[in-house]
Design brief:
By secondary structure, this protein is mainly α. The protein has one domain. Helix content is 79%, strand content 0%. It contains twelve helices and no strands. Helix 9 runs parallel beside helix 12. The longest helix is centred in the middle third of the chain and has 30 residues. The protein is globular. The protein starts with a helix and ends with a helix.
Amino acid sequence: MRGIRWLWGKWRSLAKAVDHWRMGVYRFFTEEPAEHDLADILQETATSPSALWTHFEALRRHLFRAAVVWVLATAASWFAAPRLLAFLAAPIGGITHLQAIEVTEPLRVFLRVMLLAGFAISLPYIYWELYLFVAPGLRPRARVYGLLALPLVLLFFVGGMAFAYYVMLPAALPFLLNFMGIPTVPRPASYIRFVTGLMFWVGVAFEFPLAVYLLAAIGWVKARYLTEHWRVAVVLIALLAAIITPTVDPVNMLLVMFPMLGLYGVSIFLARLAEG
């Protein structure tokens, strides 16, 4: 009988824990955030700076956990880094077409590839931590869509990196390596820095629609504003494409610009979705 009572007690404790978790999830997705006017928020912050410090402390905890996961993912990518390095060197003909001139150069290149791989692996969790930080200030509808956007974070980032690797690099490398007819034997450090930097920033640029969605859910961006100022957006996208593009020819610039224009259209749609 004692064993049965012990099992019954454990079962009741588990049932209470599950019910408590279920109610917490229900409140998380149904409770409306407190409405505060911006002037009231600024006045409260000025009179009681400690309230703002509480938010900074919460953000610090979220960023710390995200950084720990990034470090662990980077360490785990040690085993895949050689294959990733060979993959990144494929557009130039393989690792044998790179020539190192410093003793520590291959190690620095190896670590750089690990950092990029670790960031890509841990990106969904990084988004999750940021989502948990901003979710209390979002409307229930925005919280749901913000959670559903979790897999899209990795999809958009990997899509941006794939675009940089499969579309931009094949068009840019022949131009850069044979400019003015001067043959180039790139160093591993300069080549991998160039490739990983290009893939990273294009991947970040592909996250623009999700960033707009989050800002629209908070109320800082309006879909109507984005629609009315599309001409300004085209100019800014052209400038950004010129900065990201590794070459000076307009073809590569257009290769970056057209997808970003499409992403701007997706951003308008997501902003309207967030506004509900």
